UniProtKB/TrEMBL annotation:
<protein>
    <submittedName>
        <fullName>P-loop containing nucleoside triphosphate hydrolase protein</fullName>
    </submittedName>
</protein>
<keyword id="KW-0378">Hydrolase</keyword>
<feature type="domain" description="UvrD-like helicase C-terminal">
    <location>
        <begin position="392"/>
        <end position="477"/>
    </location>
</feature>
<keyword id="KW-0347">Helicase</keyword>
<feature type="region of interest" description="Disordered">
    <location>
        <begin position="866"/>
        <end position="885"/>
    </location>
</feature>
<dbReference type="GO" id="GO:0005524">
    <property type="term" value="F:ATP binding"/>
</dbReference>
<dbReference type="Pfam" id="PF13361">
    <property type="entry name" value="UvrD_C"/>
</dbReference>
<dbReference type="GO" id="GO:0000725">
    <property type="term" value="P:recombinational repair"/>
</dbReference>
<dbReference type="GO" id="GO:0016787">
    <property type="term" value="F:hydrolase activity"/>
</dbReference>
<dbReference type="InterPro" id="IPR000212">
    <property type="entry name" value="DNA_helicase_UvrD/REP"/>
</dbReference>
<dbReference type="GO" id="GO:0005634">
    <property type="term" value="C:nucleus"/>
</dbReference>
<dbReference type="GO" id="GO:0003677">
    <property type="term" value="F:DNA binding"/>
</dbReference>
<dbReference type="GO" id="GO:0043138">
    <property type="term" value="F:3'-5' DNA helicase activity"/>
</dbReference>
<keyword id="KW-0547">Nucleotide-binding</keyword>
<dbReference type="InterPro" id="IPR027417">
    <property type="entry name" value="P-loop_NTPase"/>
</dbReference>
<dbReference type="InterPro" id="IPR014017">
    <property type="entry name" value="DNA_helicase_UvrD-like_C"/>
</dbReference>
<keyword id="KW-0067">ATP-binding</keyword>
Length: 898
């Protein structure tokens, strides 16, 4: 048994100051001198090697210190940045001095359920398990408890960055100043290792029993709050236990030590990541000694909040009678909102066969009800792979209505880019979000395409999350050509919803098979690489070895958000990543093949859209002509073409209209040269294919996967587009533009190799040869290059790894009995796993340490050192490079100026 204890604020401050002084001198004498010259005291500043690109640290009562490091001049700027919002990401945490008094508001009175919890918390010494329905007030109860014990220090942790940001904003609004907020991975990153940005890092910390960083021990707190505990995975849960244990070891002997309490919040009905081995039992069984029961001496008390302050009475009536009763669930949601406040509208059930008509319905609704874009959310099982969502987003954008779409179905929504805009996102990504008006697409028989055959029989957690995001108006939207849900009574729908048909009423004919079969799909390999459980990663990497070709340099800073034409923010990181390879081509090969690709897409796939976006096409033609006739193109031109390429390939054109014509200026000449040099140092000046699409049928008979009709699936088609592939040299390079490489980036090259080995087209004549391919991942942000090698026969190993990923991916499409998920274990089996630290489910830290090592030099310095090694005796440059350019920043010639 271990007990977590805390130091007093004064003692903690003295200890922390000693750590900081040592760390500050360790950073750089120049930095420390500069800080002292500004009469600022650096607090918890990391070395530049630990700073991804921008790091903001607390600076006592004066403000914030913001450090930026660049590859261009290797300089450090220290400035008062108190006005800048502090990020919640992996490199920072909120602190208790960052509350703006100008925005402070009073909390509304707590509900009866919340008051009961507050009274217990203030009068009893106990841990708490709080289960809450959607809109039940989890975030509110956190602020109530922090204000009820304002002299205490609270620590809030969750798995989701978006939820952490929402909690931070709520605390600022209501003046909560005693709450430290971070994600679980951020806690690992800040207090243990930079590797903890990913699950593999947490795994290494656990299995190697790493000590906390000497200069960044776990912070002092009286109460630890874990939010969304139902979606904790084994590695997250065990890390929390270690975090508490190490906190106790550090603070137990300090004066005024106090054993902290633990509060877990969640909803057992909203488990979204069960395929990553998340389990609601981490919430419901937390009090058991095999889990958290021995963490401290306090008793455990369970509370529930089943009254929603978000949902209206008509919404809860619909959910209870049409969704929950229809699936024989033994619980209900109750609305805590009074009908006397305003007349509540019944949920809408829209049957749509004319999607332009649906868009007009939405726009008319905005006009007549004076709805703002950021009061509306459109949800779909998938966004990036849904033609209907594309049509809606493009229609709204063309009508000058700001709309935000995540760059992928798997990434979190960009909080800043979504402000002031209609948000179109997935059911998964909407967790923790709330807007006045919500449209839930996919409320029909096509839904099992995304969530498997089980979705034809019951309410899924994903759908429950989607229908509980609205605070005023909820619309379920069904495709008029699809069959309705069989498990929902049409009579009840008519009783609890306002049904409206948009477009001609279709004569519905049930499809032969509502569950899409795996064999009928062309799977883009990126879909296989998300949400991979640690156990699967461990098995995949057991067949691989990694070799460091180039070490990382200090990451180049890049803008990810710019001002758009609506005076809002637009995300441009994906455009920058696409443009990077073109910068290389222009600088080193005097080619710009993306022009040809985009031209083909405009003339064929997106011919109809080209009529609607004439201005963009006209601009593209001018750029094309300037390049063809004069060989001229500016940095802004390249970024524009990259944006048009992304729009054509993804089918979403909203960014073309939101980014102003003069807004393609976020990349500087030095940055474009740096990207080109980083790639150009490694790739050949001629030969190979840039972003060539490859596809092949992959045999999967050995997996024993079956379709919904019971037939054995023989093959599946995989599709991908490696950034660089050279068939005759058997060489594949995947180029990334990220702060740190992740396991999925490594596995992506293996999937490309599997496709190349099974490609029977004329282009890939060498595919039948079993000789190994050279597989590499290049990160242009840091310059790191990793070579991927197989252990054993190359062809067999690549296929084996591909099978593992397909098998994990196929669970939602196959009726085959899979190995048990964690949540399917009996209570006894689950607790036995807990007593053993869930070692069977956590896997092994299979990635090498150096993949996450902190860079010590800039990319430019490392390149110069490699040049010196390649050309001994030859004088190398001693000055930093910058591009010679004319006033219009033409990328015709790259030279160095001494």
């Amino acid at each position: 048994m271990f007990f977590n204890t805390l130091t007093s604020i004064t003692s903690a401050t003295m200890i922390r100051s000693q750590h900081l002084c040592r760390r500050a001198h360790a950073i750089s004498p120049r930095v420390w001198t500069t800080a002292k010259s500004h009469r600022l005291t650096p607090v918890r500043i990391r070395t530049f090697q630990q700073i991804p690109s921008t790091f903001t640290a607390q600076q006592g009562n004066i403000g914030l210190i913001q450090l930026r490091c660049t590859h261009d001049d290797h300089f450090t700027r220290i400035s008062n940045a108190a006005k800048d919002p502090k990020p919640i990401g992996l490199n920072s945490e909120t602190s208790d001095s960052e509350v703006s008094s100008e925005r402070v508001r009073s909390l509304p009175p707590p509900t009866a359920e919340q008051k009961k919890i507050i009274d217990h918390f203030t009068n009893e010494e106990s841990n708490m398990i709080i289960t809450a329905c959607p809109g039940g007030g989890k975030t509110s109860i956190i602020t109530y408890l922090a204000q009820a014990r304002h002299e205490w220090r609270f620590r809030f942790m969750t798995y989701n960055n978006q939820l952490a940001k929402e909690t931070e904003e709520r605390c600022k609004i209501y003046g909560v100043s005693n709450m430290g907020i971070s994600t679980i991975h951020a806690a690992g990153y800040n207090h243990y290792s930079i590797e903890c940005r990913v699950d593999q890092g947490l795994t290494r910390v656990l299995l190697e029993d790493r000590r906390p960083l000497d200069d960044a021990p776990p912070p002092e707190f009286d109460t630890l709050i874990i939010d969304e505990a139902q979606d904790l995975t084994p590695v997250m849960f065990e890390f929390i236990k270690k975090f508490l244990s190490d906190h106790a070891k550090i603070t137990y002997s300090l004066p005024n030590a106090k054993i902290p309490r633990i509060i877990l919040l969640g909803d057992t009905r909203q488990v979204l990541y069960d395929y990553k081995h998340a389990s609601s039992r981490f919430l419901t069984l937390a009090h058991r000694p095999e889990l958290l029961g021995k963490v401290n001496p306090y008793k455990w008390t369970t509370f529930s909040m089943e009254t929603s302050k978000r949902l209206t009475p008509p919404m809860t009536d619909f959910i209870n009678e049409c969704l929950l009763n229809s699936t024989q669930m033994d619980w209900k949601i109750y609305s805590g909102r009074s009908p006397a406040d305003r007349p509540f509208q019944h949920p809408g059930y829209l049957i749509v066969s004319d999607w332009d008509g649906f868009c007009k319905f939405l726009i008319d609704k905005m006009k007549t009800e004076n709805l703002q874009p950021d009061e509306i959310m459109i949800l779909s099982p998938s966004v990036r792979n849904n033609q209907t969502v594309r049509q809606i987003v493009n229609f709204l954008a063309f009508n000058r209505i700001p709309v935000s779409v995540p760059d992928s179905d798997h990434a979190e929504s960009n909080h800043q880019a979504a402000k002031g805009k209609i948000l179109a996102t997935t059911y998964h990504q909407s967790k923790g979000l709330e807007r006045k008006v919500v449209f839930v697409l996919g409320f029909d028989g096509n839904y099992p395409v995304y969530y498997g055959s089980a979705a034809t029989e019951r309410l899924t957690s994903q759908l429950l999350v989607a229908v509980t995001r609205a605070s005023e108006q909820l619309y379920m939207v069904a495709d008029g050509k699809a069959e309705p849900f069989k498990w929902i009574s049409e009579t009840k729908l008519e009783s609890y919803c306002n049904i409206q048909v948009i477009g001609a009423k279709c004569t519905q004919s049930p499809p032969k098979d509502t569950t899409r079969k795996l064999k009928d799909k062309k799977i883009n390999i990126t879909g296989l690489l998300y949400y991979i459980p640690n156990r699967t990663l461990t098995e995949c990497f057991s067949y691989l070895s990694l070799e460091l070709v180039h070490p990382p340099g200090i990451a180049s800073p890049q803008k990810s958000l710019i001002d758009d034409s609506y005076r809002l923010k637009e995300s441009v990181a994906a455009i920058t990543g696409t443009a990077a390879i073109s910068f290389f081509q222009i600088h080193y090969r005097k080619k710009f093949t993306m022009l040809t690709t985009v031209d083909w897409m405009i003339k064929t796939v997106h011919k109809e859209q080209s009529v609607r976006y004439k201005e963009s096409i006209t601009k593209f033609r001018k750029i094309q002509q300037a390049w063809t006739t004069k060989g001229e193109v500016s940095i802004g031109d390249v970024l524009f073409v990259a944006g048009l390429h992304n729009a054509c390939s993804g089918g979403f054109y909203h960014k073309l209209l939101s980014i102003p014509d003069d807004g393609y200026t976020w990349i500087t000449p030095t940055q474009s040269s740096d990207m080109a040099d980083t790639i150009g140092e490694h790739l050949p000046k001629r030969g190979g294919f840039i972003e060539r699409t490859i596809a092949a049928n992959i045999p999967i008979e050995s997996l024993g996967l079956k379709g919904s009709t019971g037939e054995l699936l023989s093959s599946v088609t995989l599709v991908g587009a490696p950034d660089f592939i050279m068939d005759n040299a058997r060489w594949i390079v995947e180029i990334k533009n990220t702060e740190i490489l992740e396991p999925k980036d490594i596995l992506q090259t293996v999937l490309y190799a599997t496709i190349a080995l099974h490609d029977t087209s004329e282009i890939s004549e060498s595919s039948a040869i079993d000789e190994p391919w050279t597989l590499e991942v290049l990160n242009i942000r840091t310059g790191m290059i990793v070579r991927v090698k197989t252990i054993g026969n190359f062809r067999e190993t690549c296929l084996k790894i591909t099978h593992l990923l397909i098998k994990h991916y196929s669970k939602q499409f196959s009726e085959t009995v899979e190995p048990k998920q964690l949540d399917s274990l009996s209570v006894k089996e689950f607790l036995e796993q807990g007593e053993n630290g869930f070692k069977d489910w956590i896997g092994q830290p299979v990635l090498p340490h150096w993949l996450f090592e902190r860079p010590e030099k800039s990319k430019w310095e490392l390149r110069e050192e490699r040049k010196a090694l390649r050309n001994p005796g030859k004088k190398t440059m001693t000055t930093k490079p910058r591009m010679r350019k004319d006033p219009e920043e033409k990328l015709i010639r790259l030279t160095y100026i001494e």
